[in-house]
Amino acid sequence: MHFKWNYEPPTSEQQAAAKELGEKIGMSPILANLLIKRGIKTESAAKRFFRPMLNELIDPFLMNDMDVAVDRLNDAMGRKERIMVYGDYDVDGCTAVALVYKFLQQFYSNIEYYIPDRYDEGYGISKKALDYAAEKGIKLIIVLDCGIKAIDEIAYAKSLGIDFIICDHHVPDDELPNAVAILNPKREDSTYPFKDLCGCGVGFKFMQAFAKNNGIPFSRLIPLLDFCAVSIAADIVPIMGENRILAYHGLKQLNQSPSVGLKAIIDICGLTGREITMSDIVFKIGPRINASGRMQNGTEAVDLLVEKDLNKALAEANHINEYNEQRKDVDKQMTEEANQIVEKLENQKHHASIVLYDENWKKGVIGIVASRLTELYYRPTVVLTKFNGIATGSARSVAGYDVYDAIKSCRDLLENFGGHTYAVGLSLKIENIPEFRSRFQKYVMEHIQPEQTEATLDIDAVIDFKDVTKRLHNDLKKFAPHGPDNPKPLFCTRNVYDYGTSKVVGRQQEHIKLELVDSKSSNVLNGIAFGQSGSARYIKSKRSFDIVYTIEDNIYKRTEVQLQIEDIQPSEAES
User: Fold this and answer.
1) Which of 95, 247, 482, 562 could make an S-S bridge to 554, C-beta 3.0–4.6 Å?
2) Residue 570, preceding peptide bond in cis (omega within 30° of 0)
3) Which tens digits make up the pLDDT trace of 392-402?
4) Cα first-last separation, the chain
5) Three-state DSSP class for 30?
6) Which tens digit of pLDDT belongs to each residue from 310-327?
7) Strand, coil or helix: what is 521?
């Protein structure tokens, strides 16, 4: 992929502010400037950023309907009503269900959980689930990570004598369902100070409020924070504000004392003994939890997450790992087929978006295929397949572009849709696909900025190799956890040379293992450039080049750092 490099040197005012802040907190101006770029300008804000405190979590009762939700849950327990915890089949939904179920189960036994079958029931609240709940005598359903648009379903539940508490984070419509309580920080009338919680985060706030109301010490909630970290990473929500606090302490829990189910997944992933990061969750832990709902049924993922016996959990984790291997095969095949379609569309380069339909694709994997195509072609992408006689699919977006608004502009053609800025699920009649494609592409073309259709690397600082020290790396670690709104800092060094020992590596000779020097010092730095073997010939030509990279631990020599190189371009003097 060709990247555009974006770098804005700090102004003299920013340099002065960074120098002053750096002196106060004992950090180099390079790092202090990273804080200023993140909107952190004072010593106290820097301390809060580097040491997020659980006592700084927002009062959960500031969320609309929270008092009503807690009262209804207390009433249900007081009357010994049967309660169902219901959630979506993705990572966010499964972790949210596991968190709420595990916490409440400590105080109340008349409770069960339910994850709809993606293939039999589809997304959200299903009539089948409501009929099952009525049959089982359930009087209260706590729904997590979905439900905000389930107007008809919740009206039907009411006719069956079932109440609902909705805990969701997806964008609501103008009309809200007739639930007892709707906990959603994205409500139009929301008074909650933080809008970007994931579904599991909303579930956590509900349990925090329940605990506070019933005199249960907050310490009883801490063992559940590992679920929050997993959902925050997997759902790709901003890692600032309250999400940063939950992710920071959730990662600590995941590394020090994970729940039995997550411990089993960590073992299966080969992560035991390593410090687990948000990246490990995104690429290893999350996909295995997701695979259950994609290939079979998400209930198996929740069974694993709430399991108390490690041997049983390991057996279940192995089972889910098999689903993940199957998912990889299907996903690879579908992505190759989708690529072939895109390549055949010769005029595709004139479009700012991609819309594909194939009735034979597997419903559970189209979201991944949409993500892969978005990364590959850097355009908002919709991938659709046929399911139960209608087209159903997923939309994914590029950085900075709200694909939810684009889908919403075609709502009269849709049967259903829901989601947020970067990810949307949708369904429509098959005969509406041509019109949808035309209107969606027209809307994107008119609203997307040219720079949003280019893969861009936003460089934080231009530095020399003499600046890349172990101390710098240790200070950079304090910026974690990383994710949207707090990405890993990207550095650029200009005019670097091959030390003479760089070589192509990998099973298919696709990566470059580098040893580099720059023009200003004798420091030799190790680097790895994944998937960039195309640059090897230039590197070996002894000409200078510029690199953009993150600074990582050297996994072979712990005392040294390694550069993970994101892009390589000839130096201006050479080009």
Assistant:
1) 562
2) no
3) 999 999 988 99
4) 19
5) helix
6) 999 999 999 898 888 888
7) coil
